[in-house]
Amino acid sequence: SSATDTIRATLFPGDGIGPEIAESVKQVFRTAEVPIEWEEHYVGDQVDPRTQSFLTWESLESVRRNRVGLKGPMATPIGKGHRSLNLTLRKELNLYANVRPCNSLPGYKTRYDDVNLITIRENTEGEYSGLEHQVVRGVVESLKIITRQASLRVAEYAFHYAKTHGRERVSAIHKANIMQKTDGLFLKCCREVAEKYPEIAYEEVVIDNCCMMLVKNPALFDVLVMPNLYGDIISDLCAGLIGGLGLTPSCNIGEGGIALAEAVHGSAPDIAGKNMANPTALLLSSVSMLRHLNLHDKADRIQDAILNTIAEGKYRTADLGGTSTTTDFTKAICDHL
Amino acid sequence: SSATDTIRATLFPGDGIGPEIAESVKQVFRTAEVPIEWEEHYVGDQVDPRTQSFLTWESLESVRRNRVGLKGPMATPIGKGHRSLNLTLRKELNLYANVRPCNSLPGYKTRYDDVNLITIRENTEGEYSGLEHQVVRGVVESLKIITRQASLRVAEYAFHYAKTHGRERVSAIHKANIMQKTDGLFLKCCREVAEKYPEIAYEEVVIDNCCMMLVKNPALFDVLVMPNLYGDIISDLCAGLIGGLGLTPSCNIGEGGIALAEAVHGSAPDIAGKNMANPTALLLSSVSMLRHLNLHDKADRIQDAILNTIAEGKYRTADLGGTSTTTDFTKAICDHL
Ligand SMILES: CC(C)[C@H](C(=O)O)[C@@H](O)C(=O)O
Ligand SMILES: CC(C)[C@H](C(=O)O)[C@@H](O)C(=O)O
């Protein structure tokens, strides 16, 4: 199929500010004439027994069919008897790698101006096994599960990513000096994969030391790959270096080439519906989605328009210290296209 | 006993640069006329069957008897059949809380100049249980253990510390949205203790969000208390904010009031014996030890001398960008006393 054929993609606008920032993406895509037709799905208002969560079976089927999607923030409703929306998506779609490019934004000043790294997080197991129980009163345990299969899969993704994106080094982050068997297995798998990529440098960094190095000198890192919880922690730390979750794209890769890009910030109910939300994270995530679809020209154009708008500094939303509305900021991006 | 009675304290100079930086502490204490008599113990050259590590039984007995000690870096010899030196100390002496004050050093520039927080880490259980096994080929698990007893104990320590050190807030760091039972129990214990300290504000912060906030604005935090692994990660992250492990003091508190202060940086074998090491972390740890002994006058004098020497910037060791030897830097501190 040629690049101008229409591609169907699932869109989860999500809750809170989700629909507003999703509107922003739709407008930018229209302006840039991206050949994508959205299939919109909302979080249901009751638990779907087939998914055990407020996500409907149909919405999951939509991603499975389209193999590509974009997701806004989803606040899991409080209560029992259902699963977290984010965890349901990861489990049901087998989204095994969470990929977050993290780059300093020109013109948006933080304490760091030299961040240019990618975190790749194993997204299905580890400390997120859900296996916990009380041993005796006052003593509880949770199980961290590391498998050879999931470790090889995410390591393979990381090295392949490094190779195809002109990256030079992969750092495996671990705490194998303490968790010799679990993190040890993760490292063993990374080493096996590293052997197949002699052109990519490989190193192993203990997580505590990694965090110290990241805050001292993030330029030391290139591609980082790690088990689930370390990825959760380090990807947020890295987002903090460049200004926060409102500015960082994220994309989840699933078995069989599914890609679900997402804004990982919250649904900010306090400002929902007020035309104040910053759509940058969702927009940059939509760029990740376009790259996954090999629509690099469109991706480059949109990314440049976003970055130039932020760099100019004339239109910025409140979270970045400006006074622009979501729609003004979006319009400014469209004007740059 | 009056403050001028001699107090016996155990000193583990440790390996690598350990003996040189311990010498620096001894000299500063002599100059400041600190009424301490050191009982020095070195790491043995073979495994002591009574401790299952290279630490001798006598050295542990020394800390148990003196109830107070200072420890340089100890590199655990590689090989099987023995336990890590640091973990042996924590287990055998029941060092349940690791306390690390983290303050920006006036005159030593990093990207942050407003760090003034304390991390208090549970030091005996959690992910450090040592319980791991292979379930089937390619599937391994490790157990994280959280107990009511250890959680209450460290929470109590944190709130008591906050109260007696003029601190206003305790933040409990957790991932209870994922590990509801283990981290949930930890939080439950923190809440129970918080009730007893109505004058201290209490909040709960998810670890990923905490790391993001720390790199964006560390001034948001005051006292942080957390399970073992999060403490390992966050205390190193915080050290990074002010310049690294070479500048941060640490003190371990054990059951029955034992205090073992320690420099948490490595033994730096590459520069050992070259009179290049920076003794600051061990010196500041020795100040923590003096405070534990209520020798606040001596502690203040020594701390001021260290901070003034660093602030002046005339004498700095290589790791801080200077050219001073360990002995010159130490002499400069003594001259400030
Ligand atoms: C909301 C939470 C369950 C989630 C996680 O821990 O994975 C979030 O922090 C993330 O990184 O997507
Ligand atoms: C050396 C290592 C076992 C240790 C730990 O993980 O506790 C270290 O990182 C520390 O913080 O003292």
Automatic annotation (TrEMBL), chains A, B:
One of its GO terms (biological process) is isocitrate metabolic process. The keyword Ion transport does not apply. Residues 6-333 form the Isopropylmalate dehydrogenase-like domain. InterPro entries: IsoCit/isopropylmalate_DH_CS (IPR019818), Isocitrate_DH_NAD (IPR004434), IsoPropMal-DH-like_dom (IPR024084). It holds the Pfam family Iso_dh. SMART domains: Iso_dh. GO terms for cellular component: mitochondrion. GO terms for molecular function: isocitrate dehydrogenase (NAD+) activity; magnesium ion binding; NAD binding. Its cofactor is Mg(2+); Mn(2+). Keywords: Magnesium, Metal-binding, NAD, Oxidoreductase, Transit peptide. It comes from the Eukaryota. Belongs to the isocitrate and isopropylmalate dehydrogenases family. This is Isocitrate dehydrogenase V.
